[in-house]
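Per-record layout

source: Microbulbifer echini
name: Dienelactone hydrolase family protein
length: 187
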Amino acid sequence: MISDIWGLTEALEQLCSRVSIDHKILDPYLGEKMNFESEEAAYQYFMREGGVDNYYSFVNKYIRAQDHKCNVVGFSVGATVAWMLACRDSSAFIEQTACFYGSRVRHFLDERPGKNVDFFLADEEPSLNISDFSRNLSKIPLVNVHQTLFPHGFMNRYSSNFSADAYDRYCDWLRVWLQNRPKWATK
């Protein structure tokens, strides 16, 4: 599980425990709970600490050090990192990828995943036209686009856009998705 800018939170730990017994949470703050007071504070800190490039480097190194293939799930900026992993040499270390509302992927649409990616779009994003983004993603081989009816952050209890209905629906989806992995990937 690759966190959003909030990093390791109790809510993310609960989500992970709900969908999988066997999981590892990767976050941009190396496991330190930051307890940000606002999304803006989390964003500013994330950018000061190196942003997407540093986060990708950290997660890429972790994925490559595993002795088995991993299923990767990313949320928001974590979804962007998951996309980058799926599209680069790291894809050899990944079984499958799920990206939740990774709007920054719009900057990486020229890259192509080497493995299946399930991509969950928010119903709208202030930074882009969702219809165009969805259409562009849908044209990319191995990408399965899921258009949701929920706003960016619907899986994060700390987000003002959290949706209990969406959370329940997509936790159930993730549980099934993770159970379909090969037995050798459960190590």
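summary: The two ends are 16 Å apart (CA to CA). Residues 164-179 form the longest helix (16 residues).
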